[in-house]
Amino acid sequence: MKADQPTLPKILVLASGSGTNFQALVDASRERDFPGQVIALGCNQPKAFALERAAQANIETFVVDHKGFGSRDEFDAALIAHILRYNPDVIVLAGFMRILTPSFVQAFRGKLLNIHPSLLPKYTGLNTHQRALDAGDDTHGVSIHFVTEELDGGPVIAQAEVTVAPDDTSETLAEKVQRKEHLLYPIVVRWFCEGRIQLGSDFVLFDGQVMKTPMRLPDN
Ligand code: GAR
After folding, report:
1. Closest by Cα among 212, 198, 23 to 112
2. pLDDT(220) > 90
3. Which residue owns the Cα nearest ligand 1 atom 10?
4. What secondary structure letter does DSSP report for 164?
5. Relative to the CA of 22, which ligand 1 atom is closest?
6. Is a pLDDT exceeding 90 seen at residue 29?
7. For residue 187, how many other CB atoms are within 10 A of its CB?
8. Catalytic residue among 82, 116, 129, 145
9. pLDDT, tens digit, for every residue of 139-161?
10. Looking at ligand 1, which residue's alpha carbon is closest to its atom 6?
């Protein structure tokens, strides 16, 4: 970047596993005109494959291994300290499989995005694909929401649907949902970096207007 160009909003990603969403964000951020830069990846799992992806992409990493802490509060305090060193504009949870304490959420209120593999408010928590199958749902999908103190309960910004086929298993459904995740997360992070979405008290503002329903990408 040239010295006279304004600095792009700084995106810090937190992940615990494979990091395919982290990769999608890195790839998107390297396209021309993307309004943000991925500056760091933090993991709670020292062996997360996401760390290798970051190394390949020349992106700084840090690990805060939750197993080294006696309580969630101590872990979150260490995580907050690491994050503050980067002064990010947005913290993107991309398969970060730790429940965050209210003090963590309050430290970064309005700057925390999460991706959850269901059409919220359905199926908060784990095993979302199997639960959608067990319920006989014909539509499933992914949601991206602002993080609040309530687990998977913050206001939803955008969702993408997948059609459940009669022969789908939890694995095939997970693959279909992940393909949508990789499309949808960069779109929402772009909106955030452009200043188009903001967290209100318990709603999303889009271009300054209260969003009555989340943006929905239908299956095609
Ligand atoms: C994604 O499918 C994401 O929706 C899910 O973890 C996966 C991470 O995949 N997140 C949650 O379940 C959060 N509760 P990735 O490491 O390949 O991006």
Report:
1. 198
2. no
3. 95
4. P
5. 18
6. yes
7. 15
8. 116
9. 999 999 999 999 999 999 999 99
10. 95
Confirm or deny that 99 is annotated as ligand binding.
yes
**Is 10-217 assigned to CATH 3.40.50.10190?**
no
Contact 203, 212 (CB under 8 A): no
Q: What is the pLDDT of residue 83?
A: 98
How many angstroms does the Cα of residue 116 sit away from the middle of ligand 1? 7
Query: In this structure, are residues 16 and 23 in contact, taking their beta carbons and an 8 Å threshold?
Result: no
Would the annotation count 19 as a binding residue?
A: yes
- What is the DSSP pairing of strand 215-217 with strand 156-163? parallel
- 64: confidence class by pLDDT, cuts 50, 70, 90: very high
Residue type (1 letter), 182: H
Q: Is 66 a catalytic residue?
A: no
The amino acid present at 157, given as its one-letter code, is I
Query: pLDDT category, 5, cuts 50, 70, 90?
Result: low
Residue 98 assigned ligand-binding role: yes
Residue with tokens 């080294």: 68
Could you give the CA distance from residue 179 to residue 156 in angstroms, rounded to a whole number? Answer: 19
Q: Domain boundaries in the chain? A: 10-217
Nearest atom within ligand 1 for CA of residue 21:
18
What's the pLDDT tens digit per position in 92-123? Answer: 999 999 999 999 999 999 999 999 999 999 99
Measure the CA–CA gap between 35 and 89, rounded to whole angstroms.
12
Q: Say if residues 35 and 194 touch (Cβ distance below 8 Å).
A: yes
Tokens 């999908």 -> residue: 141
